[in-house]
Amino acid sequence: MKYLLLLLFSLPLTAQVKESQGGGIKDIGRIPNEPPLYIIDGKKITKWSLKFKKLRPKDIAEILVLFREEAKNLFGSSAKYGAVYLITKETFRKAKALANNPPNRRLNKEEQLYAEIWEFYQTYRLIVVSGKITDKQGKPLANIRVYNKDRNTETYTDSLGNYTIKADRWDMLMVHCCTSCKLITDEEKTQEINFEGSFEGTYKEAEKAYIEEMIKQIPPRAIAQISEDYCATPLFVLDGMPMDKKKFREKTSRQKISKEIHYLTPAAATAICCSGAINGVLVAVTEKAKKKYDKRQARKAQKKQ
After folding, report:
1. Which of 3, 7, 129, 271 could be disulfide-bonded to 189 (CB atoms 3.0-4.6 Å)?
2. Does some domain include residue 303?
3. pLDDT digits (tens, 9 = 90+) for 72-109
4. What is the model's pTM?
């Protein structure tokens, strides 16, 4: 058993895995020899020092695998071949306890590390997205392909139109079906853009609106800890593409925005982005994308005439 962990680390991180309906693997792609970056309980570990670290499989609570591009964006060039982020059971227990019962004071250095580990886990762990696909009349559609573009995985709806698929918080889910259909992620909501309850303004104003919305959902005794609530992270979308907060701020500061940044409340956002939007969404559209959209709409209008 002591070699099981090292065997796990030798698996390829850049292989493109495609799951079939039954969960089998169709294609694992190219197998590289380059080692990934290993991170245990928030600390970077070299491949060689890992051999001398006494870590047994039963000591591990969570393993998060990050592929090349995402890993490099998070950890720099040392993660250019991917990253494996491990959290031991002891650390996971302490991090969870801290998140559930934050102290009424400033966090010390050790607590800050646990808070960062919990934030990372909540942000990059896989979530299970489930829902239903129907036609315009509300009748369920069977054997419809639901595709996770970012993870290159897929699943198909059952006879009642239901589906379940694993995804990261920012993954893009696509549906391939005849004519138009609805992807339902909640009994009363469909995946369509709805700006009811949205906020228009600058990034700082939108972010402020987001924080105010989150405060409404937090018990009064915990309001003082809002700056330390690492689980309450909104989804960021630019020109229809989900991304992390850092990339969103960089791109919106460099490019001209057609309209002010919108903040969608969790109620309106869940209808667009599934469970990845349970904390709301900040949405922006660049002028370039808006012009392309206007041109397409103009061409459609001409064809109808």
Report:
1. 271
2. no
3. 888 888 888 889 999 999 999 999 999 999 889 999 99
4. 0.45
